[in-house]
Amino acid sequence: MVRPVTPTVRVADGTDVRTVAWLRRQWAEEQAGGTVADAGFDAAMASWWEREHDQRVTWLAEVDGRAAGMLNMLVFTRMPKPRTASSDWPPQWGYVANVYVERPLRDAGIGRALLEAVTAYADEQGFARLVLAPSERSVPFYTRAGFGPATGLLVREGR
Ligand SMILES: CC(C)(COP(=O)(O)OP(=O)(O)OC[C@H]1O[C@@H](n2cnc3c(N)ncnc32)[C@H](O)[C@@H]1OP(=O)(O)O)[C@@H](O)C(=O)NCCC(=O)NCCS
User: Does the predicted model carry a pTM greater than 0.85?
Assistant: First the structure.
């Protein structure tokens, strides 16, 4: 690990869309190995946010007042079912995605701070579970935060 930093982690709101878009672009350009000239991207991000924000929570990690990373969670609200007063049936679970820390700031605990924010939120809200699809490299990162292999899910890949 490089020198640990203590980021500020906060929930993003509508005024942060450009910052979230900027981080998303950094990530895409890192993957592409250079500039990605997508003139419609910022508008696509703005309309995606408008459409999606009611059912998502996005966290931003900031270091010295500047965005350093993000995490996004889709809140899945289960279909209600009739139940007795005593039955324990958490009505929500979360799908964690878009976990990203700027490359020069990695391995300093910023990602861990983002995961602490989402797991604390899920626990406070009584979520049934959090689910995610890790890259191979990030498996230890998620395992340290309490995630384990999913044994009860099936997946059908797109054709
Ligand atoms: C995954 C990621 C958010 C972790 O952020 P971070 O601030 O470096 O996290 P921390 O400092 O708390 O933890 C470091 C751990 O992250 C993981 N990690 C480091 N570099 C990584 C990379 N390029 N890709 C995926 N995971 C990585 C490792 O598990 C590392 O610990 P380890 O070397 O002991 O195994 C960050 O590496 C990243 O943005 N990677 C690129 C995007 C990505 O892969 N996102 C996750 C997709 S499921």
Answer: yes
